[in-house]
Write a structure and sequence with these properties.
It is built from 15 helices and 4 strands. It is globular, with a radius of gyration of 21 Å. A two-stranded antiparallel sheet has the order 1-2. The protein has a two-stranded antiparallel sheet with strand order 3-4. By secondary structure, it is mainly alpha-helical.
Length: 313
């Protein structure tokens, strides 16, 4: 019978070979999983170079159409329609006035810079740049890549303009000033934006969004599991709940939404979110809650302070 020792979350059995194998998996398993998954994604994108920076191109085309007096939600690229809410148009307006390829290049560069900033600000190892949802985000040059750096830098209000689902993150984190600025900014810019057109076409816009997104669970399923998900958020604590909430519960998701899980700085959550299957974000949240209960015995929400900077764990 082997003697079991619990140390640093590693169960040692006393068998040197088994313990060595476990140690190697814990040390390199996540790196290998990230790299293998990302290589597959890059290879798939390389089969059709027209997909490179696809989202940046679509967003800029839609924004230019709006500035020229047209309907941005009529803009489509390779059968995919622009389906973001009106505030997303405003930050890209200056770039849409440039030649399209120049604007796309600037957005792509900003996304790559944001990816590096995300890893640095969260104090993660450099190989997190190969986190598969982040890699996909960079391949499509989606401004989603800017959300984590903006929120951590105190500009969460701007993040809400880029992506509406940044709002629940800053609320859960308790960034009330950013939430207030976002609310006031959206209200102040409402007369400039095509909200009437958006509401009049909401049915068709939402239908395009549902058709074009593939990583969310059905709405009925999300409603059914939401009580368990909310309980799990309370258990894992405010910091992790904020960053896992959108990958777990937001409807009509894309794979790159999982990038937000980087903010939780949890290897297990990242490994699960990296699976390109619907519901992987919800699975990550629930598993993290179970692990937290087993380790801590009571909800972290009752003990952990509000996180106000990237250095808190």
């Amino acid at each position: 019978m082997h003697r079991h020792i619990f140390r640093d979350d590693l169960l040692y059995s006393g068998d040197v070979a088994v313990d060595w194998l476990r140690a190697q998996i814990l040390r390199y398993g996540l790196v290998v999983w990230f790299a293998a998954n990302s290589v597959v994604g890059i290879a798939y994108a390389a089969r059709d170079t027209s997909l490179l920076y696809f989202d940046a191109r679509l967003y800029l085309m839609a924004t230019r159409t709006w500035l020229e007096g047209g309907d941005p939600w009529s803009v489509q690229l390779a059968g995919n329609y622009f389906a973001a809410p009106p505030p997303s148009l405003l930050p890209l307006a200056p770039l849409s006035l440039l030649p399209l390829d120049v604007g796309v290049a600037i957005v792509a560069f900003a996304c790559f810079a944001a990816a590096v900033a995300t890893v640095r600000m969260l104090r993660l190892p450099w190989w997190w740049l190969f986190f598969p949802p982040l890699v996909q985000c960079l391949l499509s040059a989606n401004v989603h890549a800017l959300l984590i750096p903006l929120i951590l830098a105190g500009a969460g209000w701007l993040a809400t303009f880029l992506k509406a689902y940044a709002a629940p993150i800053i609320v859960i984190l308790g960034r009330w000033r950013a939430a207030l600025v976002a609310l006031v900014s959206v209200a102040a810019t409402a007369p400039l934006l095509p909200w009437p057109a958006y509401f009049s076409q909401f049915g068709s816009i939402n239908a395009h969004l549902v058709e074009q997104t593939h990583y969310a669970l059905p709405t009925v399923a999300l409603m059914a599991v939401s009580p368990a998900a909310l309980l799990a958020m309370a258990i894992v604590g405010r910091q992790r709940a904020a960053w896992l909430a959108v990958p777990a519960l937001w409807p009509s998701q894309q794979y790159y939404y999982g990038t937000l899980a980087m903010g939780a700085r949890n290897d297990l959550a990242a490994a699960l979110v990296a699976f390109p299957i619907p519901g992987s974000g919800l699975l990550a949240l629930l598993v993290c809650a179970l692990v937290s209960l087993r380790r801590d015995g009571r909800p972290a929400w009752l003990r952990w302070p509000v996180v106000i900077g990237p250095s808190a764990r």
